[in-house]
Amino acid sequence: MQERLAHLKTLRVDPEIPVPFIYRGKKYRGVTGDSIASALFANGIRIFSRSLKYHRPRGLYSLNGECGNCLMEVDGIPNVQAETTPLKFGMNIRPQNVVGTPDHDLMAFVDRFDQLMPSGFYYHYFHRPYKLWPFFQNRLRNVAGLGRLRPTTRMTGNYDELYPNADVCVIGAGPAGIQAALAAAARGLRVILLEARPWAGGCFDYRSSAYDGNVSLFERAQELSRQVKQMGSIRLFRNTAVIGCYANMLVTAFQKGSESDPFDERYVEIKAGSVVMATGCIERPLIFDHNDRPGIMQVNCAHRLARTYGLLPGTSAVFSIGDDLGLEAAVDLSDLGLHVPVVADARFDGQDEFLLQELDKRNILFRRGWIASKANGNRQLEGVRLCTIDGMRFQDISCDTLIASAGLTPAAGPLFLCQAKMAYDVFTGFFLPEKLPSNVHASGRLLALTDHVAIEASGRLAGLKAAKDCGVLLEGEIDRTAEELGDLPGPARGCKLVQAPGRGRKRFVCFDEDVTAKNIYQACSMGFDQVELAKRFSTAGLGPGQGGIPGHNLPMLLAQYHGDERHDVLPSTVRPPLTPTYLATYAGKRRRMIKQTPLRDTLAERRGAVFRRAGAWERVRYFSEDTTSRSEIESVRNRVGVIDVSTLGKFRIFGPDALKALERVYVGDMASVCRGRVKYSAMCNHDGCLMDDGVITRKGENDYYFTTSTGRAAATAEWIRYHTRHDGWDFSIVNLTDAFGALNLAGPDARKVLEKLTDQDLSTESFPFIGYREFMIHDAIPIRAIRLGFVGELSYELHVPSSYTRALWDLILAAGRPFDIQPFGLEAQNVLRLEKGHVIIGQETEIRTTLHDLGLGFLWRRNKPGAKKIGSRALKFTEHQAGRMKLVGFKMADAARPARDGAVVVDDNIRGYVCTSRYSNTLKESIGLALVESELAEIGTRLALFEDNMGDRRLYARVVPTPFYDPEGKRVRM
Amino acid sequence: MFFKYKRMWETFPIRSSYDAVIIGGGLHGLATAYFLARDHGMTDIAVLERKYIGFGGSGRNTAIVRANQRTKENLPLYAEGLKLWPRLTDELDFNLMFFNCGNLNLAHSEAALGAMRMLVASAQFNGIKSELVDAKQCKELVPILDISDRPTYPVMGGMYHPPGGTIRHDAVVWGLAKGASAQGVHIHQGAEVEGITVTNGRVTSVETNQGTIHTPRVLNAAGGYSTLVSAMVGIRLPIHVLTIQAMVTQPLKPILHHVVSSGAYHCYANQTLKGEIATGAHMDPWPNYTTQTSAKYIKHQAESLTELMPCLAGVKFMRAWGGLADMTPDMAPLIDGNDHIEGYYMDCGWGYFGFKSGAVTGKYLAAFMATGNCPDILKPFTLRRYENHNLMGEIASPVNYGPWD
Amino acid sequence: MSLFITCPICGKRNGYEFRFGGEERGPVPEEEGLTHEAWSDYIHMRANVGGIQEEWWYHRDGCGSWFKIRRNTLNNLEETDKRNKAI
Question: Which of A16, A124, A808, A925 is most exposed by smallest CB count within 10 Å?
């Protein structure tokens, strides 16, 4: 294991505490604080993966997880970002996309055939002859893809979610972000500060250069962190990567749990009053020949590897940089023991003189206007060719490390996502916010500031502006801070170099997809010369790291192609998530949310009860394994049964205009609704199609109680208020669905059962069919009882306060025992109502089904134009309209063979379909309801039915009148 | 080298007149242009695209194709559409990457199975392969599926539709642009329509940001923006423009071999040839033109997918995007022409079904525009069905006052 | 995109608590003399303005009131120039 620079004060690892892990089946040791990547690097691993197309060796390039180079399989989970994932005890790590070993990949030969694979080559190959395409397609599938997921893989961790509110949300706990947070918190605001790394400090954290006099940058970072800790109203989320950023100040992120957290990862959704972006910069990759060789890494990668993890990136390192941070790193790494033969700087001027002197002091050769143009070495870097920007002079140098960067590029993802208007700035070479959405502020290096004091001042300013958004009055202070910032050094000029001179074939713009600069030109010359088209055709930026590597270079290459860098640099679209995020993390707690009736547990205790999801609810479909529910049906027809119908919508509507509201939404004459009786009616939409049906009764002056179908319970209050929204009527509506349980006690013995529980006169004279009564059971349970006949027998629908539902159920079962009462489920009810020809909305209706089509036109009271009944106009229009689908009852020719639900009615075309069909044991016939074109709706018409896998066979049925059972309705009136 | 890097479509200055102007450089517009040129010898055509070709729904859908629709009006169109992909691949000499993997729709209740039987029977009656499968067969098709009763909505069975699959959506746009351009069609990117002039009930010209174009025929194929174009000629449409979202995970080696979808979970997923799991969500139920994603759906998709296919918890979403869906209340398109205004044609209201049907619709629409007579197969999609309260039955649930929820 | 809506009773809330109720297009027209086309226009046709539109929302997971807001369909932001009123 490589020796750590254990003395560094900037270290974030503890070299004394080892953490064992397994890589490719062998045991290794990292140390506490390591990321997976740093631990592997410490153990001499240089090739982390093989690339997608060409199987080129890839190594550590960045430490921020911008590319797929360091995606590895960890404990069976593919595509784990080794750079940003903390090493844990016993991790089992494997490289990805490797055939053979990372050092000797059997597919590496493909790299030589790159000319056969130009941009979008697959669109031009493999389809001639077409017969061969499936073969190639499968080859392509197997070659593509990175990690391998096993079907048995399970994410076993604990995934949490959190929805905090804050006054100010600050993204990035670097110097600017911390200052913003402190400024807002000092004004009494609640601040959430998000930091992707395990520690705050940002670009100060690992640097030893001077902040101010004797204080170094990392000491300053530690001081700022201390201040954050002391400020109680700042909640710092470490290890928290922002994934989404939306207009309206909604920020989403995920947090990786540390040892002390009770979660592995946690989804965080923050609602804030104002948002400050202080995300800083990443580096813009330098494009030159073989710029992807292991041994080539970015400046901050090399610098942090040494300073944070105590690992020198190599022994001898050439620098090719475009930014002062590169010079600073060269000086510092040289002091730490890295041999630095030469620093090439793509800029001709603008360097910090102090840093140049420091290089000079260390005898490091500085080459102005030079750049790396080619990396030598196969599996690993062995040397570099440097050349002048004009390509005229060059020099070959051997080294094992090249620290390369074209300069900085802002981490502007959150700004793009929240719809800030971004524009390319020629001076800085950055995409800078031209117009920010309201309550969004940007600060720090994101705005191309490089001066330490200015970075902090801009953070402070952003924090104050955010405080102002939250209502804090501080005009003078904002102006003063702005002035102060104005006196400090402004944005720094950026390096605009697009790529090194030369036109080699292997200069990679996008590592993840193996897209080269040449590929981009190919795309352009084929017409894909706009950023988005070039991206899609070449696939640059569509790999696992998305735009992290090509995000800034691609627009610049396109501008270069068009020959005018100044005006044409248009960014490619940034899309969430900004950091790839596990589905497990997004899914979070995965709560199971189901509505249950008050009887759910009671029913679950019954042997054989089979529950099914029905919309929001969970209900019993069968009470035995017999899916025909024969015995349940028989008990209702011959004795007595009881069903839990608590899911029915139950409403009270009252107030001076309650009747008008009912008249508006119900098709019937609501003025005829009276006390002691219910009226059955329906609600339609403007097309006259059935939306809902139910019963209404009047409980008092301007006071009504009504029921709706289960499916409409949640929408009914909304519906009634919607259709009266312009009228200014005075009424109130209360949804009592969850306040009342409901049972339907049905069967010829229903009265006998109920009589045992109440002294209410239940005789049909005193409580007739469609009657409504309120009474007590055992002097304790208040009941609202309705005599209805959905299942076609004497029945009492009993509405009872939810908390009494179970008591009532038990009483009824006890009282019914002498009559052999049986609970019945949804399927039994389905058959019972089918025998009566009653429709279930959604089962016998669809988008085209009007009241007339169902034969329920009689429910419509046509002469009420003043009421503006919903659907009335369409009902008038469609009353005799040709070509509609009508609901018909049918009997199967073969009495023993019902059609299956969904069979289609056919002649030489499809003419309708079967809604429900069952064998009726009551009638000893197979019956059903179907929606058919009107020409087939005549009684006596013979229907040919086609079911799946029937070939040329047909089933036959004949249209008959409904109800099938008890057409005179004697039984419901018993 | 096997091919040259020659331009796939040429660029020209906009002329002052064309035989036909097609508004929208998406799949529908380009397909219509292609077939007008191929089948009807009309090559003096301009396709006007405000951004770049395929910017709209054509490049944002999840590229699923199938022919298992609900109504007899739709089935033949989609079935023919499905057969067109291999032919177009050949004709255009551009690999559209048709991945004929088949589609599995999951049913989570007895009622859903009944509804599926109707779809299967309808498909089979029309000679289209489709079959009902039980939960165990679902698992055989998709081994990573959880068919236990652990999910909120346990799988009870499904509908398997072998002829379906996915296509590389961008390739279709590019291939049709190539084919149209090769026959002389002008494709103008960055050309924004600002007005349509109608004189004496006839279309006469189109105003663009690059000048006036005289033309006797205009097609509104502007997808999500079609109501805005329609408003230029004063025709209002029964459309809600909603944003629909989709997302992909990081690429994996093959693990999901079919398109899987579930109505109860509002979720569908397939693995692209590149290895990403692509999945789509329901729409945000309020009209807007933002094409922005929301925090809700990416989470919702993760919740759904990890219930249905638990191993997917171990992959990462890496990209989410949104596109506009021009939704009609009955989920059927509005294809019409020469009604109200001579020479004005519309092909809009496709909602999120516009991809599967694009090429074949273009074929028939070209016949419509070339002859002025609507082919029978397109007649059911007339706009007038709305005033006749005679909507199509592509979805079962009746029209509410707002868009879907 | 995220949508926040200011309910006149409950205040600013996440848009997913609400149900969209369509563009404001006035009360149902009187039937007298209304053509089918005009009727269909009222019932089904929509403007889909690209910009600010007046529209109805219902606070489903809240107080249950219908109210109008003005929202920009190009960025999904509510225009808060005037106070929303519940009916």
Answer: A16
Burial profile A558-573: b = 16 or more Cβ within 10 angstroms, e = fewer: bbbbeeebeebbebbe
State how far the Cα of B242 lies from the Cα of B291, in Å rounded to an integer. 9
Please check whether residue A702 is in contact with residue A660, taking contact to mean a CB–CB distance below 8 angstroms.
no
* Cβ-based contacts of C4 with chain A (< 8 Å): 248, 250
Is the ipTM higher than 0.90? The answer is: yes
Chain A interface includes B1 (CB < 8 A): yes
Work out whether strand B45-49 and strand B186-189 pair parallel, antiparallel, or are unpaired.
Answer: parallel
The partner residue sitting opposite C19, judged by closest CB among A248, A419, A718, is: A718
Residue-wise pLDDT tens digits, B262-275: 999 999 999 999 99
- DSSP class of A885: E
- Interface contact flag, C64 A721, Cβ < 8 Å: yes
B237 touches chain C (CB under 8 A): yes
Taking each helix axis from N to C end, the angle separating A217-230 and A175-186, rounded to the nearest 10 degrees, works out to 30
Residues B180-195 pLDDT 10s: 999 999 999 999 999 9
| Of residues C14, C43, C58, nearest to A718 (C-beta) | C58
B108 contact partners, CB below 8 Å, separation of at least 6: A613, B153, B154, B155, B156, B262, B263, B264, B265
Q: Inspect the interface and report whether the beta carbons of A583 and B314 lie closer than 8 Å.
A: yes
Whether cis (ω within 30° of 0) applies to the bond prior to B333 is no
- Tell whether C20 is within 8 A of chain A (Cβ): no
Cβ contacts of A718 on chain C, cutoff 8 Å: 19, 58, 60, 64, 66
CB contact under 8 A, A725 and C39: no
pLDDT of res. B1: 39
Token output for A725? 């929204």
The minimum CA-CA distance between B284 and chain C, rounded to whole Å, is 9
Express each pLDDT in B294-315 by its tens digit. Answer: 999 999 999 999 999 999 999 9
CA-closest candidate to residue A361, choices A315, A330, A393? A330
For residues B247-274, give the mean pLDDT: 96
* Cβ within 8 Å of residue A140, ≥6 positions away: A122, A126, B273
Return the residue in B89, B291, B318, B327 with the most chain A beta carbons within 10 A, the one to mutate for interface testing. B318
User: Do B287 and C16 lie within an 8 Å CB cutoff?
Assistant: no
Confidence of residue B4 (pLDDT cuts 50, 70, 90): low
* Phi, psi dihedrals of residue B45, rounded to the nearest 5°: -130, 140
Distance CA A281, CA A522 (A): 30
How far is residue A565 CA from its own chain's centroid? Answer: 37
Q: How far is B369 from B345, CA to CA, in rounded Å?
A: 8
β-partners of residue A216 are A210
Confirm if A51 and A104 have CB atoms less than 8 A apart: no
pTM, rounded to two decimals: 0.95
CB contact under 8 A, A124 and B3: yes
- Segments in chain A below pLDDT 50: none
* C21 Cβ under 8 Å from any chain B Cβ: yes
* Closest chain C residue by Cα to residue B402: C21
A452-469 helix and A175-186 helix, angle to the nearest 10 degrees: 40
**What band does C81 get if pLDDT is binned at 50, 70 and 90?**
low
| Under 8 Å between Cβ of B270 and B259 | yes
Q: In the prediction, which pLDDT does C83 show? A: 60
In chain B, % of residues over pLDDT 70 = 99
pLDDT at A614: 86
Chain B neighbours, 3+ Cβ pairs < 8 A: A, C
| Closest by CA position to B183, among listed B9, B315, B338 | B9
Of B3-12, B349-358, B391-400, give the range with the top mean pLDDT: B349-358
For the beta sheet containing A370-376, the strands, ordered from the edge strand earlier in sequence to the opposite edge, are: A370-376, A383-388, A394-398
